[in-house]
């Protein structure tokens, strides 16, 4: 029976058991697709990243990302987790490193433990939508006035950094904290728009140096609420640039706090003045062990 190292790495935080956990298998060469899928199901993080030797000799690693239900092209927080682990234990020094993904080659910058990434040549997009505040408020469990109160300056819109999200500005943190989301209504809304989830935010943040406080709901993909989310934060950064949310130029770097209502707080650093938008953060290993992988097709159960 094959045995591999397996870790859980918490992204967008320096404190274990906070931020957004990613599964990580650092030595994944030789694993069949079915084995990777089974390991991802067993670790049961929202995404698990598998590190393989790169096909291109100039790239540092090839990354393959799996949710518990299947493979995806790219994951923001799992990429940050991989970059952080490689910087701490895998021998990568500070600088820019190329990673191969199913979404193409991406550059990851590492500096003093801080990892930044962007989805390659992907250009962000922002489109205002006319949904009506009553409908959106009903889906996320808000008073419509808390949305319309800021709607003149901050409209409802879809925004993308690879995956696409519905961006919903809310007036104050009290309103954001009191949301009572309806997963079925949110799933219907996101399916209709063809987006991954709904990102509600307010500039009324907890920390003095935070730009905003966000919450992400994505029940259509099995995530009722997500801890700090990289691609969603990047999409919101593009949104803030497009709607000219700040007097003058967008800040060079913004800090988005998220995950507090799940007891998994974290911070995502966003740079969105120009494309490609980039997101960054730190990560910490919370768990390390071994996982046993039977021959695929056998009746054995994977054991941690």
How would you describe what is shown here?
This protein has an 18-stranded mixed beta sheet that branches. By secondary structure, the protein is α+β, with helices and mostly antiparallel strands. The chain has 2 domains: 2-119 and 284-293, Diaminopimelate Epimerase, Chain A, domain 1; 124-275, Diaminopimelate Epimerase, Chain A, domain 1 (Roll). It is globular. Helix content is 23%, strand content 36%. The protein has helices spanning 33-43, 76-88, 133-140, 144-151, 173-177, 183-193, 230-242, and strands at residues 2-11, 20-25, 47-52, 61-67, 70-72, 95-101, 104-111, 114-117, 125-128, 157-160, 164-169, 197-202, 212-218, 223-226, 254-258, 266-271, 278-281, 283-293. Helix 3 packs across helix 4 (144-151) and helix 3 (133-140) packs across helix 6 (183-193). A hairpin with a 6-residue loop joins strand 16 (266-271) and strand 17 (278-281). Keywords: Isomerase. InterPro entries: Phenazine_PhzF-like (IPR003719). GO terms for molecular function: isomerase activity.
Task: Please give the count of helices.
Answer: 7
Overall CATH architecture of the largest domain: Roll
What is the averaged pLDDT score? 93
Number of strands: 18
- Summing up helix and strand content along with how strands pair, one would put the structural category as alpha+beta
Domain tally: 2
* CATH top level label of the largest domain: Alpha Beta
Give the DSSP E fraction (strand runs of 2 or more residues).
35-45%
